[in-house]
Amino acid sequence: MFGSSIGNIFKVTTWGESHGKAVGVVVDGCPAGLPLTEEDIQIFLNRRKPGQSPYSTPRSEADQVEILSGVFEKKTTGTPISMLVWNKTARSSDYSEIAGYYRPGHADYTFDEKFGFRDYRGGGRSSGRETIGRVAAGAIASKFLDSLGIKLQAYTHSIGPIMIDETNKDLSEIYNNPLNMPDASAALKAEALLREMMTAKDSIGGIVDCEVTGLPVGIGDPVFEKLDANLAKAMMSIGAVKGVEIGDGFQAAFAYGSENNDAFYMENDCVSKKTNHAGGTLGGMSDGSPLRIRVAIKPTPSIFQSQETVNKQGENIQIQIKGRHDPVIVPRAVVVVESMAAMTIMDGLLANMTSRMDRILKFYETL
Amino acid sequence: MFGSSIGNIFKVTTWGESHGKAVGVVVDGCPAGLPLTEEDIQIFLNRRKPGQSPYSTPRSEADQVEILSGVFEKKTTGTPISMLVWNKTARSSDYSEIAGYYRPGHADYTFDEKFGFRDYRGGGRSSGRETIGRVAAGAIASKFLDSLGIKLQAYTHSIGPIMIDETNKDLSEIYNNPLNMPDASAALKAEALLREMMTAKDSIGGIVDCEVTGLPVGIGDPVFEKLDANLAKAMMSIGAVKGVEIGDGFQAAFAYGSENNDAFYMENDCVSKKTNHAGGTLGGMSDGSPLRIRVAIKPTPSIFQSQETVNKQGENIQIQIKGRHDPVIVPRAVVVVESMAAMTIMDGLLANMTSRMDRILKFYETL
Amino acid sequence: MFGSSIGNIFKVTTWGESHGKAVGVVVDGCPAGLPLTEEDIQIFLNRRKPGQSPYSTPRSEADQVEILSGVFEKKTTGTPISMLVWNKTARSSDYSEIAGYYRPGHADYTFDEKFGFRDYRGGGRSSGRETIGRVAAGAIASKFLDSLGIKLQAYTHSIGPIMIDETNKDLSEIYNNPLNMPDASAALKAEALLREMMTAKDSIGGIVDCEVTGLPVGIGDPVFEKLDANLAKAMMSIGAVKGVEIGDGFQAAFAYGSENNDAFYMENDCVSKKTNHAGGTLGGMSDGSPLRIRVAIKPTPSIFQSQETVNKQGENIQIQIKGRHDPVIVPRAVVVVESMAAMTIMDGLLANMTSRMDRILKFYETL
Amino acid sequence: MFGSSIGNIFKVTTWGESHGKAVGVVVDGCPAGLPLTEEDIQIFLNRRKPGQSPYSTPRSEADQVEILSGVFEKKTTGTPISMLVWNKTARSSDYSEIAGYYRPGHADYTFDEKFGFRDYRGGGRSSGRETIGRVAAGAIASKFLDSLGIKLQAYTHSIGPIMIDETNKDLSEIYNNPLNMPDASAALKAEALLREMMTAKDSIGGIVDCEVTGLPVGIGDPVFEKLDANLAKAMMSIGAVKGVEIGDGFQAAFAYGSENNDAFYMENDCVSKKTNHAGGTLGGMSDGSPLRIRVAIKPTPSIFQSQETVNKQGENIQIQIKGRHDPVIVPRAVVVVESMAAMTIMDGLLANMTSRMDRILKFYETL
């Protein structure tokens, strides 16, 4: 039961249930001297806040972050950064009914079996609210990476069958539509689809892409701590994610070596690659090309149609889920994907500092 | 640089380079009293051995495992199990040429940048021979899981565009063809494709599936140590893997909630699911259904066509790779995928023992 | 920088500075179903609360704990337990002067060098208030151990030269005097000594003992995760601890093998030991005898005498520390020692569940 | 059961039983580019080799190390360094008798209880031969530290009541006597005592000191990963160690604050300390003064006198241990203590590189 921490050096521990007093995170291992304010965190949290579009839950929570430790005179001190968000508008009564049965597609049944009982209110620990801690940590990691010139950008690639048109991709569009798509026209079509879903009391899945530029070469380790392996874990640890790809991903399974190999060439005295099928890693280490990560997100399991399931007494029953549920998870997952990528890369970047004697000697000689 | 260990309780540490003295593994955390012999390990190693088909390298190594510690009177003792395989027929001269340039699709460049230099012989640490340690550890994990009634089966799902026919799938066929496909007819087509590849001095990718049955409910933890998250990391840590799916994977991104949700129902007094789109996990914990894992494997990067690249002096050059290289990685990766799944599941299963007070009290009261 | 977490399975992460908003702890890995209330925690916290005697700081903080997550219907849920205590009466102005120089015996200088600057208010992260998180976690571990019949008792063994009389030891006396000594007469003498210290503007060190009974055999692992090794780390991680002994400790360095060996014999069909020089461990594993731990605690470094030191400008200066400081750390350290022992033992006890195949098979067969 | 690994970044995993095929170690996390040969390791191993004096076992093993991986062209490559020593002269028959009973002071009983059975030959995993792996790893760490100007020196401080005379201490004497004492005259007295012990079929304990100079300020972390805490764990993980002190250790429990505080002053523009009661750490971080570590080592538990114990059938019996056993552990423990200190410090030094933004930015900007 080590469930709630991730990272070797930049270590992130989230805590909290959907309808407990608060949700939060402790970030240990952030270097001292990084400028940091609650506003830096809030900007990230606002990107995942509910109630921002007709397609997300109207729960109008402020989700205002408080930094409780680890920051002094607006800089990180090198000690653990504890952050929390109070759970304000929790209406537990909405959920009391679900205490007794197992919602399809949810963790109710597995929680009960593993732990003997569960905090059933609002999904408890498996609620999307757990990602508040992840995003708060991701905001720190992003700020750190930014100071090294490393930029991350996640966005919605598709909702159901509605994909962005790669030839029409415009990253500046991402925040101009409620679905975080870098293609205004695709966003309009996807919105229409979501309205259909709501009418049909149904939901739909989608795909999130994340691109990272500015990474130095050599982040990640050769065997089990490969950068792509840790990214895969980080992504698959997000509740609704069912698949992860690096670079061409499953397309590589259909490719010839002669097309999948990215040829090296010199560009401005730097080793560069003519293509980037690999998606920015070779042998588990960053290769200097943009990192390309893609994740598949399942449809919201809470739908308003009648569903078959069983109750705790072991009877087959018919249920109808109430409450507030988005017809799609994807747009709000975008900042979570970006956050998980940021913390994974930051962790790898810190670990990388110990890889070479020449650099270590130089580091300690110039202190 | 934590690169070479994986697992929290069942901890596996591989070591060794392709053309060093030996490759091996230390397995720490295996419970005492598991019957184990070198033969148990050898059976697994033989499944990944080269030279078993026209499509794998003719390097005729015995790859004979030696258990050096942790086993006494044919049972594990609870202490670290150290195993090694000597590197016998290493012909380093084959590789001396590659010291000076970076092969496309390989880790040569990233290794040099990260570590300042590299053991270039045969790919060094990034060689497929590193997986010998993984498979030896996987053999132990499989034996452990088998004693609890948990069975794993990995196989080749596709090579390039040649997929098995699900309606024709026959697991007993897996070892009857050199490609480890559970469909004799697909295997014949794939063999033809591989002969084409060899003629064209090219290579091809493919997909490996792994199914696990008999898992108890509740293996894996709710947040970062999700069973699927750890499986994703374990899979993506295999050199050539570019994508991982659990259950329907990327298909879930196109599905409606009403079809993707697996309805629960009672069967023989057990909670069961009518479908298994989820692939055996809910909320990161095993749900009692078969676990379904799918990984995408890129084409062998070592191809015999002329390729563009750069050398260490920063010049654009043209290279032609020599030596022994398979036109496809997939068939030999099958047992590696199965091994990584086995150790990940075993680790989760051991961790799960501490999840509930009632079970802990019972455990300690009956000692 | 992994500084703030301890434990492999029962993982404790403390956070917070003396004069930040709050101090707290996240406990991950506590089994589900342990009855737990804020009152359980508060009882432990009250044992370390300041202002309880003339020899401890009059800072009259309530130190009231809040459980923010991981407990539902008065039982732990198996998810992280987040607890905090608000810092209410922090008067930072008391401390502004110390920003510019390095107090002897404190971490001011090392903090500045390691992190570039520090939160100097009240000792920041190195304040004794950090132990609030430890004690809150220790309260949980103690409750867990108690349910298995394992009892811990720490107490003051000596303050300066005033030791308890072993022939007069009465554990029921521990809470009857402000020094937590199990010997009323020694306590009176020690109180007199402390009054002398206060008059002399000086401080004094002392020794804390901790005894643990009811431990099953086999807790701890044979090599690096020895129970005594983890106890030594846990103890030495307490700010003022300078020495740790298990059993006879340094006395064993002067003993003959023939006297130091504890002879085994049968008692009521159980393997028992005639003596307990070893202090309850053999080969790093608990042997069924009482565990005996002893720690040396240095005198409070904050004394009111004039002291020599340097300031941040690199000048030799003379300082006089102000504020509220105890003449002795020992009595308030007692519950911290007990807490660290409790969490270390609980961690070992959970890890021990995976040591034997026969027990694992039985565990999983009876689910 | 994580027993056999230590270290967060410089990770050391030992394996092997006294009478198995071999003993060894895998060192993961050693930076690339450190010059390293088998000779470097052998020099350290020779310091712990048996049969070097009348007071150590005559088992005349070569204990010749083989490096199997991680070194190429006489430099470390950044990949795991696997090293082993074959067990050549194992005469298991000497030990067959002890299979059935529990030797006092040994781990026989706890092993049997924890794991259900044990490899009883020569102490199995609890044999002193396990330290071969530690010393091999320590040789690497020492070489690394040496390249940064950090020097370690451990030595025998006392054997039973015979202590070195601090005023007579001469570190150049350490290798001139078989007891590794830096005081020739004390060594002679101790040798006389050991001859007495052998005649009396008894054994005796002692104390090992370790001093470290040249450490930069700031190694170690403020809370649980304190340098002294990790040293305490490392030391107490050595089989026969029963106590650990940093600096004045237990003496500090009897000291006044006014004498125990080390006054800072400026010396050659550097912050220095007038005394070093603290032993080189403040707040868990190195303070630039020499590190002083002291460990208590119990007498050899294998003595040739008749002893009382029990057998596996639960009968009280009388035993007489046969075989080869030293009358004192201390001299051969010296290099083990030094090795454990070296690896702990190296680990802390690598971790320290990530503590400050200004240094990280500089590190990455100059790559």
Automatic annotation (TrEMBL), chains A, B, C, D:
<dbReference type="GO" id="GO:0004107">
    <property type="term" value="F:chorismate synthase activity"/>
</dbReference>
<comment type="pathway">
    <text>Metabolic intermediate biosynthesis; chorismate biosynthesis; chorismate from D-erythrose 4-phosphate and phosphoenolpyruvate: step 7/7.</text>
</comment>
<keyword id="KW-0521">NADP</keyword>
<protein>
    <recommendedName>
        <fullName>Chorismate synthase</fullName>
        <ecNumber>4.2.3.5</ecNumber>
    </recommendedName>
</protein>
<dbReference type="GO" id="GO:0009073">
    <property type="term" value="P:aromatic amino acid family biosynthetic process"/>
</dbReference>
<dbReference type="GO" id="GO:0010181">
    <property type="term" value="F:FMN binding"/>
</dbReference>
<feature type="binding site">
    <location>
        <position position="48"/>
    </location>
    <ligand>
        <name>NADP(+)</name>
    </ligand>
</feature>
<keyword id="KW-0028">Amino-acid biosynthesis</keyword>
<dbReference type="InterPro" id="IPR000453">
    <property type="entry name" value="Chorismate_synth"/>
</dbReference>
<feature type="binding site">
    <location>
        <position position="324"/>
    </location>
    <ligand>
        <name>FMN</name>
    </ligand>
</feature>
<comment type="similarity">
    <text>Belongs to the chorismate synthase family.</text>
</comment>
<keyword id="KW-0057">Aromatic amino acid biosynthesis</keyword>
<comment type="function">
    <text>This reaction introduces a second double bond into the aromatic ring system.</text>
</comment>
<keyword id="KW-0274">FAD</keyword>
<keyword id="KW-0288">FMN</keyword>
<feature type="binding site">
    <location>
        <begin position="298"/>
        <end position="302"/>
    </location>
    <ligand>
        <name>FMN</name>
    </ligand>
</feature>
<feature type="binding site">
    <location>
        <begin position="125"/>
        <end position="127"/>
    </location>
    <ligand>
        <name>FMN</name>
    </ligand>
</feature>
<dbReference type="GO" id="GO:0008652">
    <property type="term" value="P:amino acid biosynthetic process"/>
</dbReference>
<comment type="subunit">
    <text>Homotetramer.</text>
</comment>
<dbReference type="GO" id="GO:0005829">
    <property type="term" value="C:cytosol"/>
</dbReference>
<dbReference type="Pfam" id="PF01264">
    <property type="entry name" value="Chorismate_synt"/>
</dbReference>
<dbReference type="InterPro" id="IPR035904">
    <property type="entry name" value="Chorismate_synth_AroC_sf"/>
</dbReference>
<dbReference type="GO" id="GO:0009423">
    <property type="term" value="P:chorismate biosynthetic process"/>
</dbReference>
<dbReference type="InterPro" id="IPR020541">
    <property type="entry name" value="Chorismate_synthase_CS"/>
</dbReference>
<feature type="binding site">
    <location>
        <position position="283"/>
    </location>
    <ligand>
        <name>FMN</name>
    </ligand>
</feature>
<keyword id="KW-0285">Flavoprotein</keyword>
<keyword id="KW-0456">Lyase</keyword>
